[in-house]
Amino acid sequence: MSEVRIVRFGDLDQRTAQTPGMRRRAAIDRASVGSEKLWVGVVTVDPATRTGAHHHGDCDSVVCVTEGSISIRWGARLENRAEAGPGDFIYIPARLVHQEINESDSMPVSSIVVRSGDNVVENVTSEQLADSERSR
Known about the structure:
The protein is mostly beta strands and 136 residues long. The chain has a single domain, classed as Jelly Rolls, CATH 2.60.120. It has 2 helices and 11 strands. It has helices at residues 30-33, 126-134; strands at residues 22-28, 38-45, 49-50, 54-55, 61-67, 70-74, 80-84, 89-92, 98-102, 109-116, 122-123. It is globular, with a radius of gyration of 15 Å.
């Protein structure tokens, strides 16, 4: 039987795939509501923090920044950069290697993330970035 489900803020689940430098907490996923086509969660990047480079496999992602300002780098060598603040939406295509940077010394960055599929996280090492550079 289909029904509306409410996931309370206090019930967000941090037992989801993680990347160094950020904290993901799942709201909507297979475990919480049985969703097989969507992952939605809250992500926090602490002040003065640079996340590890990563991508989300075959999943597209949308990030809505709710608090603070974030710099995002992307590309095989993280050679591109853009800034986003509260109310801005960021679209991240499947398999795009990216990194978030919170340059504030005092304010965390909070966002709501919507991902097609599950919370696929493929962390990328500096060696993998270097290999990508060498193969160009």
